[in-house]
């Protein structure tokens, strides 16, 4: 139903030219001060898009985001002690 999406952090040197990164995927966030952009794109076209992004003169480095691999469901292994401190 939904295509598998992957995130990438693109470090750039020219913030004005970096606004054109939305041609290669969904531009989620663009930091002009730290000069990086967070992009999401479909996993099946990601390899071609990364190859084209690396050819751009203002792109310094591209990193893959590991956000979808981080565990976001937490367990509480400590027993609840709030009932002992009641009034």
CATH homologous superfamily? Answer: Peptidase S8 propeptide/proteinase inhibitor I9
Write down the secondary-structure element order: EHEEHE
Indicate the structural class: alpha+beta
**Number of DSSP helical runs:** 2
State the separation between the terminal residues, measured CA to CA.
Answer: 53 Å
Indicate the overall shape. elongated
Mean pLDDT: 90
- What is the CATH architecture descriptor? 2-Layer Sandwich
What does the radius of gyration come to?
20 Å
Helix content estimate? 10-25%
**Assembly category:** single chain
- Give the CATH level 1 class: Alpha Beta
Number of domains: 1
Q: Please tally the β strands and state the result.
A: 4
CATH fold-type name? Alpha-Beta Plaits
Strand order, main sheet: write it out: 2-3-1-4
Low-confidence segments, ≥5 residues, pLDDT <50? none
Pfam families: DUF2129
Keywords: Cytoplasm
InterPro entries: DUF2129
Protein name: YlbG family protein
